[in-house]
Amino acid sequence: MAYVYLCIMRETVFFFLIFFTFSLQGQHSFPLPFIGIPVEVLNFGGDTSDVLLFNMHDNENTSALAGRVFGEKYDGSYYELMHTGKRNISFLLGEDSIHIDPNRIFTDKGVWLQLKKNKLKDSLIFQTIVTWRDSLLTALKIESRSLVIALHNNTAYNYGFKSYKPGEEYADEAQAISRGAIWDKDDFFFVTDKDQYEKLATGKYSVVLQSTTTLTDDGSLSVYCGQLGIPYINIEAQHGHLPRQIKMLIFAYRALVEGGDSGGQEKRNRHQQKKELRALIRASKS
Ligand SMILES: [Zn+2]
User: Fold this and answer.
1) What is the CATH number of domain 2-285?
2) Could you give the CA distance from residue 250 to residue 258 in angstroms, rounded to a whole number?
3) C-alpha–C-alpha distance, residues 163 and 173, integer Å
4) pLDDT of the residue at 25
5) Whole-angstrom Cα distance, residue 286 to residue 284?
6) CA 234 to the chain's CA centroid
7) How far does the centroid of ligand 1 lie from the alpha carbon of residue 46, in Å?
8) Is residue 77 pLDDT above 50, yes or no?
9) Three-state SS for 259?
């Protein structure tokens, strides 16, 4: 029990060490208020790459850290939305609290679904959200990116890779699934393109390919990118799985951006990845 406690303590200290190190470096931001609510769009490491890394849920801090670390030390333009530390952006309308999930407004249909969830039919609010979304997409230069990498975290309960298995809740959203050798239902890739799927499936992580025929338009960024043919992957990892999420990011980047045979490359680069992770940990302590 004491050993488990020590491990948790060590992971927590490691997390905060890196978090604050990368919180203080190379940060730029601009305001993008959402219906009167202050929202900052943060960018780490400049915007020098045509690969976009994006964390849109403000409560998914492991993703934020993985993106900051990767954007600074490797290559990739990393952005995140910052407001209240919560997943949804909320505002008051009269006496009612309205809650909008920023990953459900990338299509117009998604915006209407969000309004419906809040029992609203107001076309002015619809248009305000659409305008905000379009400003965000323009700022992220999303349509000119060679690859969009969304970073998300989930919990050990409910949603995970297994949600896409036949008969499960999101089975219709998946065209194909590939279970990786590293088995954790919460850590997986979700991609929109068959070629990406095949490249990532040669590695040790689980992969889900989004369906083009039976998917639901819920307004998420994967649907938007799928509709427009923008290369998109989502790296899902459980909250706190920071080394895993960074490793998945490095693997995906090498397989999809640098090209090559990802399976063989992964083996060849395993040693290099460990070295790089150790260097990051050292850098966070200096
Ligand atoms: Zn998320």
Assistant:
1) 3.40.630
2) 10
3) 10
4) 56
5) 6
6) 5
7) 23
8) yes
9) coil
Q: Cα(163) to centroid of ligand 1, in Å?
A: 15
Around ion ligand 1, residues with a beta carbon closer than 5 Å are 57, 60, 152
Rounded to the nearest angstrom, the distance between the alpha carbon of 151 and the centre of ligand 1 is 7
Q: How far apart are the C-alpha atoms of 195 and 201, rounded to whole Å?
A: 10
DSSP secondary structure letters along 21-45? HHHHSSEEEEE--BTTB--EEEEES
CB-side neighbour CA atoms (13 Å) of 201 = 15
Q: pTM of the prediction?
A: 0.83
Q: Are 141 and 148 in contact (CB under 8 A)?
A: no
Q: What pLDDT was estimated at residue 1?
A: 44
CA–centroid distance, 152 to ligand 1, in Å, is: 4
CA 60 / ligand 1 centre spacing (Å): 6
pLDDT at position 169 is 94
Q: How far is the CA of 276 from the centre of ligand 1 (A)?
A: 26
